[in-house]
Design brief:
Layout: H1 3-16, E1 32-39, E2 45-50, H2 60-65, E3 72-76, E4 88-90, E5 92-95, E6 105-108, E7 119-126, E8 129-136, E9 145-150, E10 157-166, E11 173-180, E12 186-188, E13 201-207, E14 224-225, E15 229-237, H3 239-252, E16 277-292
Parallel strand pairs: 1-16
Antiparallel strand pairs: 1-2, 2-6, 3-4, 3-7, 5-6, 7-8, 9-10, 10-13, 10-14, 11-12, 11-15, 15-16
Length: 294
């Protein structure tokens, strides 16, 4: 999921559920909103913001003001980050180079990359509070084959499929991202595969990236052009992360942000961030591929 969608949804959703709390800033309960992740062979990234009361004007300038830029964010592979042999790093922070990400401020690692099968602990120290969370990077899933079929009525567009084995015992699910050179960034397919944990054995799934009007490939919809070279990332996530993203998808697509369906629904989002934080710290077991569309 692109961080802008996650951030805006959580900022609005959380405040739609809180109206009776005593807090020194404009009478609402302030929360530290967290989205952080660590993938195998990649450095961790964490994004932090404060939630915004619905009484405030909601625009980009307000979100910028609520970006947290002075937190201490620590990642470790040990519950005791100071233990002998622990791989522990205090993340660096900077403005995000990708302007499409909003808010464009990140905390990122430069010392230790994620390893499959390991548990990673997140600690965020900010404004006198300490937030904690933990996650596991699942072992990555390998795609056995890619296949395509023509789109009816169009000679150049193709639908793309992937086939891989699902181990029902692991209770993992999968997110897939595709990169088209013309767009310049990875786009997520709109489905969370195996979200009900009912699949097992060899399964074939359609890859259909979500597109927006600002994308150069907008006219292609969720399809691919014959002859294009596509990068595909298959991300394996654990059951805790699955339940969070599953609920987030359901709520954000119901009838729009802030409708009656959302009132009181924040508790169904399975945040794994300790109080007074909210959001998700998750691990990705990533497999990467290059596919030429035949």
């Amino acid at each position: 999921m692109r961080y802008i969608n996650f951030c805006i949804f959580i900022l609005l959703l959380f405040n739609s559920c809180q109206t009776d709390l005593d807090y020194s800033i404009k009478g609402y309960t302030q929360k530290i909103i967290v989205e952080g992740y660590i993938s195998n062979d990649e450095y961790p990234k964490v994004y932090l913001t404060l939630n915004i009361p619905l009484s405030q004007r909601f625009d980009s300038s307000i979100i910028y003001k609520n970006v947290i830029r002075f937190a201490k964010v620590t990642i470790s592979d040990s519950l005791n980050p100071n233990a002998i042999g622990a791989k522990t790093e205090i993340l660096t922070s900077a403005w995000e180079s990708e302007k499409r990400l909003f808010p464009p401020y990140k905390y990122f690692g430069t010392k230790y990359k994620g390893e499959e099968g390991k548990i990673y602990y997140l600690t965020v120290d900010y404004s006198g509070y300490t937030l904690k969370a933990q996650t596991t990077i699942p072992f990555k899933t390998h795609i056995d084959k890619f296949s395509t079929k023509p789109v009816i009525g169009n000679d150049t567009l193709r639908e793309l499929f992937m086939t891989f084995d699902v181990n029902s015992y692991l209770k993992n699910s999968y997110r897939v991202y595709t990169y088209k050179k013309k767009d310049g960034y990875f786009k997520e397919t709109q489905y969370l595969y195996n979200s009900k944990f009912t699949l097992n054995g060899s399964n074939t799934f359609s890859i259909s990236p979500s597109v927006s009007r600002i994308d150069s490939s907008y006219s292609e919809g969720g399809y691919f052009v014959k002859g294009d070279t596509i990068q595909v990332r298959l991300c394996t996530i654990d059951s805790v992360s699955t339940q969070f993203f599953k609920k987030l998808t359901i709520l954000s697509s119901s009838n729009g942000i802030g409708n009656n369906f959302l009132i009181g629904e924040k508790e169904s989002l399975k945040s794994n961030i300790s109080y007074p934080g909210f959001g998700i710290w998750y691990g990705n077991g990533v497999s990467s591929y290059i596919v030429v569309i035949p």
